[in-house]
Amino acid sequence: MAAEKSRPFTPVAAPRFPTYHTASDLPPQARIICEILATTPVHEVEARLAAAQIQLTPEIIPRVLKLSYNNPSTAAKFFRWSGLALQHTGYSWNLMVDLLGKNQLFEPMWEAIHSMKKEGLLSLTTFVSVFENYCVTGRFDEAVMTFEVMEGYDVQPDTVAVNSLLSAMCREENQTVKALEFFERIKAKIPPDADSFAILLEGWEKEGNVAKAKCTFEEMVICVGWSPQYMFAYDAFLNTLVRGSNADEAIKFLHIMKGKKCLPGLRFFSNALDIFVKQNDLAHAVAMWDVMTGGGVLPNLMIYNTMIGLLTRNNDIDGAFRLLDSMAYDGAFPDSLTYNMIFECLIRNKKVREVVMFYNEMIKNEWPPTPQNFTDAIKMMFSGDDPEMAVEMWKYMSKNNISPRDDSANAVLLGLCNLVRLTDLRRFAEKMIDEGIIICESTMTKVRNAFLKEGRSGRETYDHISSKWKSAYLKT
Residue 357 CB: number of other CB atoms within 10 A? Predict the structure, then answer.
């Protein structure tokens, strides 16, 4: 296999391809050969291989080739040398073709293909490798030419071959138009299937081309109809619409798909909902949710939480409660995140009575508030005429060792200061200091002011608390 003259090969630095250095369970003979190929000049390879006196087996050859992509010239020497002792399998030939193609040695690659034809070992797998390696290097015309000459090599260019070339093209950046050009030329001769359209739609999705996606989807419906089996195509099309700010059309198509019993799966709904969350688009999220659940698609916990998060962000408390009530019916049981998003929303909207009721439900279901939500709830309870519940929350935190609770402790002390509940203030302050909780200097100022209003006895009480606080502060 002569080296390509028109385009000299520049060796690619490892670790572009896997090497024998990191291969596990590699037979000793294969490892020795790999090391020879990696460290020996090309003109000495055959002599080194012969001197090693390795007993070749059909299994060793592909193992060596897979780990020698970084050494194409010596790998080619090994392939030729080993072929004198053993007849290469079609699998080994395909590896050699791929190795040469990956290294842009296209002339020797074609020489290998000619040899495979003589041996009767060519298959579609061979040509798929050629498609991919041409497309990776931007040689799309050569990839199409390869497809066109397949029949001359006794390999039928069928729909699978078409899809393989389309896929190789669409994987490259902004090349779906090239794939479409090939598709338009070939579709009259080789009818496309659903996979053909799915590949193009995924290409348009990656490129964000809404107009082309619509055209391709319309043609797909005409050519292959509707089927739940075409889910990947539907997902790609709808994702393109949603990401392209065409949510109204996406909802319209979802209604059509629902009528055809061809709704997409959770992959699409999850992706679309994430986009609506980023856009804070509650209206389209709700519309999509109604189609999804009305069509029998069961949302999982993650999707429920995403939707509840969007509802609570927009202060739609009733909507959040409706979803919370429906979760168990869909087998998606609420977790800490579910409860805390709703709890936070209730606090933010100063729903004192609802906060108390929901807090009790959270404790009953063993999903307590987060430390931050505890702090915010305690503050709200003191300002919302329910200080006993604030104290109850603090006691729960302390009893269950929920941490960090420094902020909540300071909120309790400030609330008691404002209510001038000095007996409780002293009791809680001393206990908090004993527990090593950090009391802020600003909080201590409020505590001092509250006690000083009580004259001498109040000053003595504060001095006692202050002494303990300073002692604890110095220890830390």
Answer: 12
Tokens of 115: 């040899």
Q: Chain centroid to CA 46: how far? A: 47
Q: Do residues 54 and 64 lie in contact, with contact meaning Cβ atoms separated by under 8 Å?
A: no
What lies within 8 Å, CB to CB, of 172 at 6+ separation is 135, 136, 138
Alpha helices in 263-405 (DSSP H): 266-278, 282-294, 301-313, 317-327, 336-348, 352-364, 371-383, 387-399
Cα distances (angstroms) measured from residue 357 to each of 95, 347, 372: 67, 12, 19
Residue spans per domain, the chain: 1-122, 301-369, 386-476
- Short-list 119, 120, 155, 175, CA closest to 130: 155
pLDDT confidence of residue 474: 66
pLDDT digits (tens, 9 = 90+) for 184-235: 999 999 999 999 999 999 999 999 999 999 999 999 999 999 999 999 999 9
Q: Of 169, 229, 230, 231, give the one whose Cα is nearest residue 204.
A: 169
The greatest distance separating any two alpha carbons of the chain, rounded to the nearest whole angstrom, comes to 110
Q: Is the pTM of this model over 0.70?
A: yes
For the four alpha carbons of 238, 240, 241 and 242, in that order, the dihedral sign comes to positive
Reduced to 3 DSSP states, what percent helix, strand and coil does the chain have, rounded to the nearest 5? 70, 0, 30
- Report CA-CA distances (Å) from 300 to 163, 273, 306, 448: 33, 13, 10, 52
402 by DSSP, 3-state: which? coil
CA distance 409 to 393: 11
Q: Under a CB-based contact definition with an 8 Å cutoff, are residues 107 and 5 in contact?
A: yes
Judge whether residue 385 has pLDDT over 90: no
Tokens found for residue 171: 């994987």
Query: Token pair for residue 291?
Result: 């189609």
Give the separation between CA 83 and CA 63, rounded to whole angstroms: 15
* Mean predicted confidence (pLDDT) in 108-126: 96
Residue 455 has a pLDDT of 86
- List Cβ neighbours of 265 (8 Å cut-off, separation of 6 or more): 231, 235, 297
